[in-house]
């Protein structure tokens, strides 16, 4: 969708003059579902922080490893993925259903462009189910109500909050949203979070985010690894704890190789 005229449908809720998180992320992941304004903002941020593209890809690779663990070893068969982003390779349902074809997945996002592309996310296996909820993380109860069309909340759910909590500016509100969502899930459910920080690149990351907040939507709030760890309060955090997402159970590389850290910290925890 590189032709901006073709995608700028007036009244469809798209603002093609402001860069949006889902579209710039899609650009960094090598996708085509973005506008000129997103590519310009993406290039500008990447000029300030060249590792940002690597960070977007490391985030996506973490999604794959986390879901393979959840659907495999942990036996999770239901996923609620809030802040879905635009479809790309290896979306949540594809990874989960490759391991367990009967997996049920609900996606939720508040960007109208993600809704337009949702049909690409609704390609479930015949044994499983995929559904899409147009919902805002600021209103977790609405998302839970609509997700209950598809998910059985008497059974464990894997809640995925990847690259979204840093779009909730108020830290106390962000904690309370996560508590509310996890409170609705039965023991044996899992919380998976990936969140931007400046722990690795410091001022370069902070400058890139200041620029993002001038040109893009929704604004971003960086948090420290300690603040990110607090999202898991009351849950059993799995090894290796909260770490850079490139270092969460990485696939084995050439001997002794540790992947470079990126400014996206993550964790996976089980509700006891
Ligand atoms: C950086 S992308 C992450 C995409 C994907 N989860 C990933 O990790 O690759 C952030 C996504 O969160 C969505 N988002 C941001 N704030 C939101 C909110 N308050 N409610 C619902 N979705 C939101 C954006 O529209 C975008 O699709």
Question: What is the chain-wise order of helices and strands?
Answer: HEHHHEHEHEHEHEHEHEEE
Helix-residue proportion = 25-40%
Q: Estimate the global geometry from the Cα principal axes.
A: globular
Largest sheet: 8 strands, mixed
Taking all residues together, what is the mean pLDDT? 91
The count of helical stretches stands at 10
Instruction: Give the low-confidence spans.
Output: 1-11
Radius of gyration: 18 Å
Q: End-to-end distance, in Å?
A: 44 Å
* Ligand types: S-adenosylmethionine
Strand content: 15-25%
> What is the tally of beta strands?
10
Q: Which structural class is indicated by helix and strand composition?
A: alpha/beta
Secondary structure: elements and pairs:
Elements lengths: L3 H4 L11 E2 H8 L7 H13 L3 H20 L6 E5 L9 H8 L4 E6 L2 H5 L12 E6 L5 H8 L10 E5 L8 H13 L6 E7 L6 H13 E2 L7 H6 L5 E2 L5 E2 L19 E7 L2
Parallel strand pairs: 1-7, 2-3, 2-5, 3-4, 5-6
Antiparallel strand pairs: 6-10, 8-10, 9-10
Helix pairs in contact: 2-3, 3-9, 4-5
Bound molecules: S-adenosylmethionine.
The site of S-adenosylmethionine has 22 residues, from α2 and α4.
